[in-house]
Amino acid sequence: MARTDLPGTTRAAYATVRVALRRAWDPAAALLRRVTAPLTAVASAYGIAAFVVAIAAWVAGLTLAWQELMVVAQVLSVTLVAAVAFVLGRFRYTVALDLAQSRVTVGDRAVGRLVVRNETARALLPSVMEVPVGQGAAAFPVPRLRPGREHEEVFTIPTRRRSVISVGPVRSVRADPLGLLRREMSWTEPQELYVHPVVKSLSGSSTGFLKDLEGRVTQDISNSDVSFHALRDYVPGDDRRHIHWKTTARTGQLMVRQFEETRRSHLAVLLSTRAEDYASDDEFELAVSVCGSLGLQAIKEDRGVTVLVNSGSLRGDHRTRLLDDLARIERTPSRTRLADVARLAAHSVTDASVVAFVVGSGVPPADLRAASARMPQDVTVMALQCVPGASLSRRTIAELTVLTLGGLGELPLALRRVNEA
């Protein structure tokens, strides 16, 4: 019986010991972090290694009376003390970071300005200012500044691709020549630079497919609209302006007009962000530009616009907000296919009169047809397949019109072909 219970008892003892050690180690580790925080906050990996080797050399040299180790300990100690002298002193700068524009288009020039000023009554030692830009960082040496003097740096930000670039915060850096110690201090808040996609103006006849003077007629009956439907008996509370007096005079009973409710033109753009739907980044960038061009034209004409992507919807109530959202989106692997987004659009954008699918070459015809089948029968549906370098073409899949675009400049002509069909 004792032998059978031994493993369970041993496991319980081991668990008790582990819990006890953990409870003892956690406070010790917290104390160690507090004690070493001043060192780890300014020391690089080389600095920490030099400090550890110096301590070990002192202990071994004094214990073993080893002259060579004593020399190593002395050299490292002098080096560390000299490094401390480089990073001592208080930072008393006044730093300003300005972006000439917070929103630019791909390829436009984006300029930033960094101003460092000495507001103290004494001169400040030279330092380095670092400005993180996206995934990288730019370093600007700041010379010795006399009281009241300032140093200015102007720099450019690459805008080769659509993105949202975080600029800042500006950090002042003091470090020794060997890189053992490094002291930083942040001076500004990070700022965002929106690099908007390139868009194409669609003014003129190319947007005729968006225009609908009286809107889309529905089967819903309204008491006030444009399209006359029938007459009915007057009910207290009806607008007297809609009384049909000729019929009233003939029948001797008040009759009012009824109308078929019409809906204002509303464009829904379904932009696929599924990585598998595109063969390259260039395809996706062209699709984003096409989506932006359609959305901006609808906003310009004061038409309703809704932009849906695989992860949700974008803001289509203002051109700047739409372009800001388009600057952020990325193509990512997703199980949500175009048909799933179309199903969501059919339920959430019930007043859409025109739906445009914007996709890449990776979407097969079967998926386009399945997405089109999710849309209501009285909605005009078209697909814009973006394939850089391809020739402009038009084909139909069942009742769906599919346009293949090889470049953004072909979009106006492609829309005119839809109007002529």
From TrEMBL:
Keyword Transmembrane helix: yes
Pfam families in the record: DUF58 (PF01882)
InterPro entries noted in UniProt: DUF58
Boundaries of every DUF58 domain copy: 231-339
Annotated transmembrane regions: 43-66, 72-93
Keywords: Membrane, Transmembrane, Transmembrane helix
Protein name: DUF58 domain-containing protein
